[in-house]
Amino acid sequence: MALLAKGTWVVLVDGEKALICENIGTTRAPRLRLHAKMAQELEPNRELVSDRPGRMPDPGRNQRSAMEETDVHRLAKERFATEVAARVNRLAAKTDLGRMVIAAPPQLLAVLRSELNGELRGRVMAELPKTLTQHSLSQLGAKVADLVDPL
Prior knowledge:
The chain is α/β, with parallel strands linked by helices and 151 residues long. Helices cover 36% and strands 23% of the residues. A five-stranded mixed sheet has the order 3-2-1-6-7. Strands 4-5 form a two-stranded antiparallel sheet. The longest helix is centred in the middle third of the chain and has 23 residues, at 72-94.
């Protein structure tokens, strides 16, 4: 567990919850301190989408194809990841963020990566394509350290 040193920041994101933490423990016994918690509540799709999928004409006589529905949950999750990245950027401007680990589902990881400012992107030592926000804060330090160490 040598990579998750004291002072390493850990950003954990899923589509509905985000935790921004700092390791205040040691490399052998990491302990995360919560600096910020963000959350959003996603409404059911039936509440957000009321229309049937559209149709468009195809070449040929009287042919029409269905269009794919917009995935409003995916868009809301990506918008949330953008807000989290903005919060991390603001936090980095106020405090000295050293190394950083980001854990998020792959789609959200891509959004976070693109929204972090250039200096912060250089400080990211590991990107974990996993959802870890469901674990308690007391367990997260060891879980993140176990995932980062083999990298």
